[in-house]
Fold:
Amino acid sequence: MRWREALHPVGMQRVALLAPRDALRDVLVEVADEGTVAFDPSPAEAAVVPTGATERLQRLAGRPGAEPAVTRDLPDLDAWERAGRADLLAGEAELEDRGRQAVTRGTVAAWLGWVPDVEVTRLAQRVGPEGGAVVPLPRPPGVDPPTLLPTTGVARELAPLVETYATVPYADLNPSVVAGLAYIVMFGLMFADAGHGALLVLAALLVRSRRVHRLERLAPYWRFLAGAGLASTVSGVLYGEFFGPTGVVPVVWLSPLDEPVAAMLAAVGVGAVLLAGAYGLGAVNRYREGGWRLTLYAPSGLAGAALFLGLGAAGSGASFAPGWLVPVGAALAVAGLTATFLGLLAAAGGGLGGAAQAAIESVNLVVRLGSNLVSFARLAAFGLTHAALGAVVWQASAALWGQGPAGTAGAVAVFVVGNALTFALEGVVAAIQALRLEYFELFSRVFDGEGRPFRPWHVALIRST
Structure:
C-alpha cells in the first residue's frame, strides 16, 4: 500500500444495485458472498414480516451450526428443516429479508448502498451473469459515506488503536500510523530499560513466528510490539538502564533518578511536540470537514493551535530566551483566543447567553491546555518509577551476591523474579498511561466528531449442499 493511501479511509462509491425480479435471489447470493456492499437502512415496516425460512429456523432453535450460509441451489426449506440445516435456513432468511427490502419498479428490483470504489468493478462482474447491474451514483448532499480504514499494511495493524476510540469520519485523515508512532514513543519513555525493551523485541519475533499457539492472535500486531520494544530499548540506553542501573550500558543522556527535574521538563517538551502535531492534524481535519471557516474558528483548528503556540512561545521567552518571544507569543495567543471565542459565540447562537457560554468555554480551553501539557510529565514520572524499581531489584541482588552459595542463589532469584515483576507491572502501567495520553490529550484535538463504520452485508456461500 502506498503511504498516501494509508493516510485516508478507503474511498467509497455510492451505488444502486439492480436485479431482475425473476433473478433476484441469484443476484443476492452473489452479493452476499462478495461481502462488499453496505446497504442503506431499510424502511422500518419492511423488517417485521416473518418468512418461511424464519419460521422453520425458529423451530430449529437451539441446534448448533446456525451461522448463516447460502447456496446457489434452489432452496428446499422443508428438506433443510428435516436435515437440521439451521445455517442454510438462516442464510435464506437473510436473502428473503433483503429481497423484501428492495424498491421494485415493474420487473426490476433495486437497493441503494455503499461499496469501496476499488470493489465496484469486481461486484459488477459477479452479478452481471445473473442479470444484475451496479450503477455508480453521486454522493447525496449532506451525507457522509461510511468509513473503512485500510485493510492491509502497517495502517491496518495500528488501526485498532484509533477504532477503539472512535470511528474516523470519512472526511478526516486516517491517523492510525501517526497515532501508533506517538503511542510507541510514549510507551518507550515510560518503559525505559534496554533489557526489558530487548525482551519485548524478542517477544515480538516469537509472536511473528507463530510457534506459540496461544499467541497466534497477536501475530498481525508483531510490528507494533517490536516498535514498543525498540523505543524502550533506545530510552533505556539514553537513561543508562539495562535491567536496572547495572552499568552494562552507560548513561548517554541523563539518569532519571539523579536528574528528575530535567527528565520532567524533557517529558513536557515531548508532550508539547505531540500536542502541536495533534493540532496540525486537527486543523487539516477541520478544513476537510467544513472548509476554511471551521478551520479558522474551531478550538481544535487554527484558532486553538494559535492559542497553544502563542502561550508556548510566550512561556519559552519568559523562562529561557530570546525575550522577544514574549510579546510575539502573547499577540498570537490573543489572536487565537479571540478567534476561538468568536467561533464558540457563533456556535452558541449569539446574544448575552451565548457570549457567557463562549467566555466560559474559552477560559476552560486555556485551563485545559495547561493541564493537558502538564499531564505529559507522567512520561518522566513513570520512567522514574521504572528506574526506581530497577534500582531496588539491582541493589538487593548486589547485596546478596557473594554471600556464599545461598546468597549467590538468592541474588539470582531476586534479580530474575524482581525483573519479571517489574517487567509485568510497568508494562501494564505504561501501556495504560500511553493510551490515556493518546485518547484524552491528543485524539480530543484530532477528532471533532465521529463517523459511521462500514458494515457490509456478508453471508458465506456453500458451493455444495
Observations:
- The chain has a mean pLDDT of 91.
- The CA atoms of residues 369 and 454 lie 34 Å apart.
- The chain has 16 helices and seven strands.
- The longest strand covers residues 12-20.
